[in-house]
Write a structure and sequence with these properties.
Length: 255
């Protein structure tokens, strides 16, 4: 451990009102936990590799699969504009690949069908992420910007005046994330980890849940309509109750 790291530990221990020796032991425990979690993650990725490969081929037959999955995450959905949705509706494949030497490093590849936004050379967009070890079980991710070739006037990362869109103006600012320096797309790391740790491993579950919720909404809508119709009938009956049947005129025999 460097002198700088030791100084930081001492400062943090003092702020937390924890004895320095105890804090150092806790820091070691955090590093050990991170190492174990890394081994578990590596083992999981290796075991699931063939399973994900089979899933990848099958879901290509479902045109809206990956777009539906992306929308299930509130952390991602908040960045998806109406225009983004038009492009993401053409998403044909989303693939995550972990580095063999360091499983904390990974790449995310988005593949699109031909569309009105992207040039043919950008129908496949790959984003590489490198994990930086900050010590004490802490990490951060950095990445190089991915160059996107947009068709004329269709750049979703710029506004109508040609100026760069703010962080929350488009999902596609994700591809500009670097993890370093001011002015960077701050949510890039969180979005990448949401995709790799939550959505990608459990994509089938999210897709099924999304469609189940949609079916439930349709059913609830039908019940609401039926209930409204029943209420209208009851109100009509209360407002104007049917008059009693008119007495029949007596026949000659009854007279």
């Amino acid at each position: 451990m460097s002198d700088t790291e030791k100084t930081e530990q001492a400062k943090t221990a003092e702020e937390l009102e924890i004895p320095k020796e105890v804090y150092e032991d806790l820091a070691n425990v955090m590093e050990q936990q991170a190492d174990v979690e890394y081994e578990i993650s590596k083992f999981s990725h290796e075991k699931l590799k063939d399973v994900f490969a089979k899933r990848r081929e099958l879901v290509k037959k479902i045109p809206t699969f990956w777009f539906t999955v992306l929308q299930t995450s509130p952390d991602l959905a908040e960045f998806i504009t109406v225009e983004d949705a038009e492009l993401l509706d053409n998403l044909s494949d989303l693939h995550v690949e972990w580095d063999n030497d360091n499983h904390r490093n990974f790449s995310i590849t988005f593949s699109f069908r031909e569309n009105g936004f992207l040039e043919d050379s950008s129908l496949t967009l790959k984003k590489d992420f490198e994990c930086k070890d900050l010590g004490q079980g802490q990490y951060k991710y950095v990445s190089k910007p991915t160059d996107i070739k947009w068709k004329k006037g269709m750049d979703l990362t710029k506004n109508k005046d040609g100026e760069a869109a703010s962080d929350y103006d488009t999902f596609f600012n994700f591809f500009s994330f670097t993890g370093e320096g001011p002015g960077d797309f701050q949510q890039g790391e969180n979005m990448a980890l949401t995709i790799t740790e939550e959505l990608y491993p459990h994509a089938l579950k999210f897709f099924v849940e999304a469609n189940t919720m949609s079916d439930d909404d349709d059913i609830e809508g039908e019940y609401d309509i039926e209930e409204e119709d029943d209420d209208d009938v009851e109100e009509e009956e209360e407002d104007g109750k049917e008059a009693p049947p008119k007495k029949k005129a007596k026949t000659e025999e009854e007279k």
